[in-house]
Amino acid sequence: MTRTPTQPHEAWPVPAAPPPSIAEEARPTRLCLQLTHPRADLTVLTAAGDIDSSNAADLAGMLWPALLSERSSVLLDFTAVTFLGVAGLELLSAANTYAPHRGLKIVLLAGQPAVERAVRAARPDPCTDDPISLPAQGRGPGSRRSPRCP
Q1: Is 19 exposed, middle or buried (0-12, 13-18, 19+ CB in 10 A)?
Q2: Which residue in 2, 62, 126, 148 has its CB near the most CB atoms, within 10 A?
Q3: Is it the case that residue 15 has pLDDT exceeding 70?
Q4: What is the span of the domain harbouring residue 100?
């Protein structure tokens, strides 16, 4: 008996391509960071976009030097952050644990409901500190932006 290659039967449906995996759908998230020093005792780290495991290291690269500086207060302006994932929450938790050992005050400004919910869920008794008042916004000397920002 001779074997011949099998041909698909016309009545059989051709299987559709499998749906893309989560990894294929995942796109790098955009995160813009800006570090400013509006006063001698204050560092402001402004973030805009999504904070997740794909870019938390970028945030850490700007946050930890701010915590090691000689300034006494760090304001995290997350009013333009649209998502705060576990990696971002872990970073904030570590910074919040470290700051008192340096005598630093950290204030987080969260504007988006999703970010506020994430912070509340991660910390049952949220900080009640009032935001630090800032001078007029602008990029002055000592400001730094992440390379991903225009």
Answers
A1: exposed
A2: 62
A3: no
A4: 29-129
